[in-house]
Design brief:
Layout (H helix, E strand, L loop, with lengths): L10 E2 L23 E2 L18 H31 L7 E10 L4 E12 L6 E13 L2 E12 L9 E13 L1 H15 L5 H4 L6
Parallel strand pairs: 2-3
Antiparallel strand pairs: 1-3, 3-4, 4-5, 5-6, 6-7
Length: 205
Amino acid sequence: MPSPATGDPERTRDDRDDHDDRGYGCDAWPWLVSETHVPALSRPGDDSPVLNATDANDAESAALLLTTMHRLHKQLDDFTARLYIAYDFGNDSGLVPGIRIERRAAGPELRTHHHFGFFAEDDPDISELRFSAGVTLSSTGCVVDALVDVDLEQPRGEFGAGRHTLYSERIDRLSLTDALDRLTEQVAALCAMDDVPNRLGFDTC
C-alpha cells in the first residue's frame, strides 16, 4: 500500500503484486515506512541559511536543488529496487525509500535514504542495509555527504555483528551548484556498489 506521506510504496519480499516482483506492504516491520519528513518552518528572525523563494536568484536555486534531489532520489530508488529484485533478502524482508528534510545545527538538510530490512534465521531482531546521500545548506557553504552502512544483529557474509561503514564521503564549503554536481557523483558511486548484497552473503534469486 502506498505511504500516505509520499505515495511511494514500501517493498517487501512477501505479499508481492503479480505485476511487480518488488511487492508492497510492510507488516513484518511497520515502524519502517516510506516517508517525507519536513520540519517546522523557520520563524521570523531565525538565522538559518534558508533560500528565499521570493528572490528570483534564490527561487532558481531552490528549483535546482529540488529537481536535482528528486532525480537523484529516483536514481537511487531504481538501483536499490534492482538489488532487492536480484537478491533473496529472505522472508519478511523489505526495502523502504524516503526523503527527509531535517534542521541540523549547521542548517537545513535534504536527504534521500533507502533502507533494506532483513532477518537472520530464528532471530526476531531486524538488521539493516542503508544507502543515503544528502546536502546541507550552511552559512559557510553547502555540505554534501553519502553513506552506505550495515547494522547486523548477527554475523553475515564478510561482516561480524554490529555496524559497519562500507562507503562514506563528506565534502563541505561548496557552492550550491558545485555541491549538487558532487552529490551527483556520490550517488553514481553508490549505484556502482552492486556487490554489497553478495558481500553480505545473500544469494541471487
